[in-house]
Amino acid sequence: MQGLGITAMLFDHLFPVFKEYGFKWAETGPQLEDNFKELRQWNALNPEFVKRRRCWQKAIGKE
Questions:
Q1: What pLDDT, on the 0 to 100 scale, is given for residue 52?
Q2: Alpha carbon distances (Å) from 60 to 55, 56, 57, 63
Q3: What pLDDT is attached to residue 16?
Q4: 3-state secondary structure the chain
Q5: Tell me: the pLDDT tens digits for 4-54?
Q6: Measuring CA to CA, which residue among 16, 15, 7 is closest to residue 40?
Q7: In this model, does residue 2 exceed pLDDT 80?
Q8: By the 8 A CB rule, do 31 and 53 touch?
């Protein structure tokens, strides 16, 4: 379903509901800080980044 506008349709439906219930802010689930496609969807809401998520890799043992 990626790239089909499903997220836009969901936001279009949910934002009025959130406003009706008085929501002032929200926090997303975990997203890698270099997943620009995922992060770009929030640009219209002027996001404030309060957490960063990174993955590190280290080889263990002998090669």
A1: 83
A2: 16, 13, 10, 9
A3: 93
A4: CCCCCHHHHHHHHHHHHHHHCCCCCCCCCCCCCCCHHHHHCCHHHCCCCCCCCCCCCCCCCCC
A5: 788 888 889 998 999 999 998 888 888 888 888 888 888 888 888 888 888
A6: 7
A7: no
A8: yes
Count of other CB atoms within 10 angstroms of residue 42 = 15
Which are the contacts of 18, defined by CB distance < 8 A and separation ≥ 6? 26
Give me 9's structure tokens. 């349709």
| Distance in angstroms (rounded) separating the CA atoms of residues 34 and 54 | 8
Tokens of 55: 């993955």
Dist CA 33 CA 60 (whole Å): 25
Does 27 or 1 have the greater pLDDT score? Answer: 27
At residue 61, what is the residue type?
G
